[in-house]
Amino acid sequence: MQSSFSPILVSLLLFFSGSLLANVPKEIPVSDLNPSLTHQKAVLLTTRVMQRYHYKKHELDNSFSKEILQKYLEMLDPNKSFFIKSDINEFERLYNKRLDDDIKNARLDASFTIFKRFRERVDQRMNEAVRLVNYPFDFTLDEKYLIDRKDAKWAASQKALDNLWRKRVKNDTLALHLMEKDDKEIREKLTKRYEGTQRRTHQMSADDVFQTFMNAYTGALEPHTGYMLPHNAENFDITMRLSLQGIGAVLKSDNEYTSIQSVVPGGPADKSGQLHAGDKVIGVAQGKNGQMEDVIGWRLQNVVEKIRGKKGSTVRLNIILKKSGSNEITKEIVIVRDKIKLEEQAVKSSVIENLDGMQGKRIGVIDVPTFYRDFQGASSGSKNFRSTTRDVRTALKELKRKGVDGIVIDLRDNGGGSLTEATELTGLFIKSGPIVQVRDYSGGIEAEIDPDPAIVYSGPLAVMVNRNSASASEIFAGAIQDYGRGIIIGEATFGKGTVQQLIDLSNYVSSGKDMGRLRLTIAQFFRVNGASTQHKGVSPDISFPTIKDADYGERSYENALPWSKIKAADYSGWKTASLDKAETSHKKRIKKDSGFIYLQGRAELFHDLKNEKSVSLNELKRKAEWAVKDDQRRALRNEYRRSIGLSPLSKADEDDEDLIEKIEDEEKTDEIERNEAARILADVIYQQSQPVVRAAQSVQHHSILDL
After folding, report:
1. Nearest to 519 by CA among 214, 304, 305
2. What pLDDT sits at residue 687?
3. Is residue 380 among the annotated active site residues?
């Protein structure tokens, strides 16, 4: 099973080893930007493979042509800052109903014509931006700049675009001014930024233009299908071989920024405590003294090539903190690249006891960061190959020896992994039966079956999930819920319920020419009750009020495959007792719980920051707005700290890099939800005198305390 991330994210994981590019890319003359015979063959092969094997049945028609054009324009100009409305009108008139026929006939001229216009517009805008760098801006005026133009209209004229870029350069200047940069440094930095954007656009080759158009074509169908040029496919291969060397983070494009999609548990970024999901990378420097390069406006691939590197080498990142929202507060962090050890992502267990509300129960917790499996060791017949299921089996036996009353499986932030492991892990808790159903592109349905009739653990069980629990995590949680084997606690999961396969297009030609790879969605997962994990994810039995954005995960993709349902599999579930009492106790408890009050307040603040579309260009207002938000956030945090007996933090404390890890360790915010999950399970155990709600399958009728 493939990762839960989109193709561009998977291929750009910052794990793999490698040095920076040896050669600086050359600027490409416009006359060289033409489709090649290889491009024509690749688009025909892609079309043939997609129409035959893609899970989503589709027609390459006028309607699809319009979607491809819109996707291509979005990929070239995501913030609507270069094209003007007359450009768009012209493209739509010429190509809305033509791209489908062009693709069928391997005509790619339209995509190159559009790109050449884009390059022309970039030249115009960057020349104007460089001129504006020396403009004497007045930061006392009451102006606003729309930073998120995704839903904005295209600029109606060159004059409107001029005004947009005046505000854009003014905002960039103010941001650096607030970082206490002097006027000379600001001018130099912004000039390099804008000239760099122009230069990188000129460095885009015919291959780059072709790949961009191909990803518009594939991405217009659904978000997890994508095309990779041969050199990008090479990077993907390195990633899949798990040469885990780098900073341990996943990047994504976010308009003109590069943002952190996720941080890998146990990796250098995670251990540093300084890099978090939602932070934006705006600068990269090599070593302790290397020059910081501004990477705003860079292509994702170029940023990746700057950040990755050899074990033991140092990279410095200039980041915009997620918590600063539109105010763009920056910070420089230092990370030493390292190899990510399997042990750092392996299963870990602990025991929670002596908490208020625990009813005197002892609850074991098993943390499962990912569904890993040593496929090479397994196929070679090794008796001791590492796997999630094997490690959880060992943890279960150890916790039973310690006499716990129930067990929580923690799948928060587990993005998936091996389907085999999801199936076998579920089998540790049930006697037999199907775990997940898979419907392929032809409509055929097969079920993955629990291969082992033995039950390793038959006692009270809960599974913790959150918005980042995806793919294999959703299969396991869904099966546990459907079988009535345990209670699901937390947030609705990511909603990634599709299967991808990497197809080498070179296999379809006899010339031996490398045609690149196609990552294709070929199947969809369905739970044993017939409902898909796609789009909706798995809904918890008892929810935590810690999520404000309903469109997170798969639900945030405009063209994601919808939720659907098939016939339920043949399986035997267990009678489910009411969770009303446990849920009532939970809601009553978290109303007064300082930890949950903090988590809810923090979620609301981040939600507000994320949804800010514009920013003030008045210096005093900008400072005041940030000060208010920063004070609100720190007051919320300090209220929580006081409630657990810690001293409040000052701004200087929060900015002290030497204190960051100590502060986060003592606050133990990651334990807030885990402790509540333990309390919920303890409530369930205490309240039920008959077999636990979601009781274990067994030949005998186990009581609630039969472990």
Report:
1. 214
2. 83
3. no
